[in-house]
Amino acid sequence: MNRVTPCAGCGHGLVPLLSAKGRAELSCLWCEGIDARTMDMAKWADSPIGKPERITRQPIE
Question: At the top level of its lineage, which domain of life is listed (predicted)?
């Protein structure tokens, strides 16, 4: 079972985020007002390189 460290301010679970030094630090997304959609990983996933190509379905003959 995984242990979740709660935030002392709001009680939500802390999330490991990479710091500027490259180490994972526990942060509260709610108290710090971090929008996960604006983070670098979300931007990469939303880029054309991160998306799989659409496959056109061919009828079976």
Answer: Bacteria
Q: How many CA atoms, within 13 angstroms, populate the side-chain half-sphere of residue 58?
A: 2
Residue 35: C-alpha distances to residues 32, 47, 53, 61 (Å): 9, 18, 27, 48
51: left (phi over 0), alpha (psi -120 to 50) or beta: beta
Residue 45's pLDDT is 59
Whats the size of the chain, residue-wise? 61
The ranges assigned to domains in the chain are: 1-51
Q: Is 45 or 5 the better-scoring residue by pLDDT?
A: 5
